[in-house]
Design goal:
Layout lengths: L15 H18 L7 H22 L10 H12 L5 H9 L9 H12 L8 H12 L3 H8 L6 H25 L71 E6 L2 E6 L8 H14 L1
Antiparallel strand pairs: 1-2
Helix pairs in contact: 2-3, 5-6, 6-8
């Protein structure tokens, strides 16, 4: 059976306990597929150390068991399992369990599955299901659902899980119906004020964008992205910046409203004379425009 893949070598990087568990499972499959599972213990041990590599051989040489036990395949494996068994703190595991809460976008099944995994290391005994039920009620994201679960009284884990799944399905259906009923609904955003952190590109709220000297907003340093790129300044009449950012010290444009007519003039052409003359000149200017 030369085509069988030989497992290994054993890696001690990362989670050594999980690495050993996976390596030994692959090794057992290798023994069966290559018809070596019925070989003598010394042959299987030699194969184990050969496949495991230098890391496993070093552990074998320093393993604190009797030398005769190192020649017995089952006893050797038992000793290696004890060596790789993770050292856990029940107090720490219970802390992780009791502080676990459902995240906003996390499904209920994902939340419960993680609670079950954590409960395995907490030594809850016969109280396991009750404590998982309590953690679901305390850690569920939906506060309205939590209130309904508390009103159930002395409920079982299965009953609580059933209610949570029904609620999740109902919420999904409501979202689908809302999206179907309002396909063209768009959110309306308030117009930002100058010097506010407006992001025309990039992550929202980022502080690494400079304040644009033309519009007063924060955005990528690119002229085409500036809101004032094609706007006419109401102060100087030039394009490319807002009035609030105008630094032009020359002739300025002024506007005023009189007798239902908007009058426009430059600072160096400030009108003089009577109101009648001004009205005539302004009216003719508006008509010509």
């Amino acid at each position: 059976m030369g085509d069988n893949r030989v497992p290994g070598p054993l890696s001690l990087e990362g989670n050594a306990a999980e690495n050993w568990k996976m390596f030994f499972q692959e090794f057992e499959i290798y023994l069966i597929s290559s018809e070596k599972s019925e070989k003598k213990d010394e042959v299987k041990i030699a194969l184990l150390l050969h496949c495991g590599g230098r890391e496993l051989l070093d552990i074998f040489n320093t393993l604190p068991i009797e030398e005769d036990d190192k020649k017995d395949y089952k006893k050797l494996i038992a000793g290696l399992n004890v060596h790789f068994e993770p050292k856990t703190s029940v107090t720490h595991e219970r802390y992780l369990f009791n502080t676990r809460v459902q995240q906003r976008d996390e499904s209920f099944d994902s939340f419960v599955t993680d609670l079950r995994k954590r409960a395995k290391n907490c030594s809850f005994g016969t109280l396991r299901d009750e404590l998982i039920r309590d953690r679901i009620i305390c850690g569920i994201f939906d506060e309205n659902l939590r209130g309904r679960l508390l009103r159930l009284g002395e409920s079982t884990l299965e009953e609580v899980m059933k209610q949570c799944r029904i609620n999740e399905v109902s919420e999904d259906h409501m979202k689908e119906l809302t999206a179907a009923a309002n396909p063209k609904t768009h959110s309306v955003r308030a117009k930002p004020k100058p010097n506010q952190d407006v992001q025309l590109s990039g992550p929202r709220g980022s502080e690494d964008k400079p304040i644009c000297k033309f519009c007063g907003y924060r955005h990528v340093r690119r002229r085409s992205l500036c809101p004032a790129a094609d706007k006419e300044c109401l102060m100087c009449g030039r394009r490319g910046h807002f009035q609030s950012r105008c630094t032009y010290k020359g002739t300025r444009i002024h506007q005023y409203h009189e007798r239902n007519i908007w009058h426009t003039y430059r600072e160096d052409d400030e009108p003089s004379g009577s109101d009648e003359e001004l009205e005539k000149s302004s009216g003719s200017e508006c008509k010509s425009q």
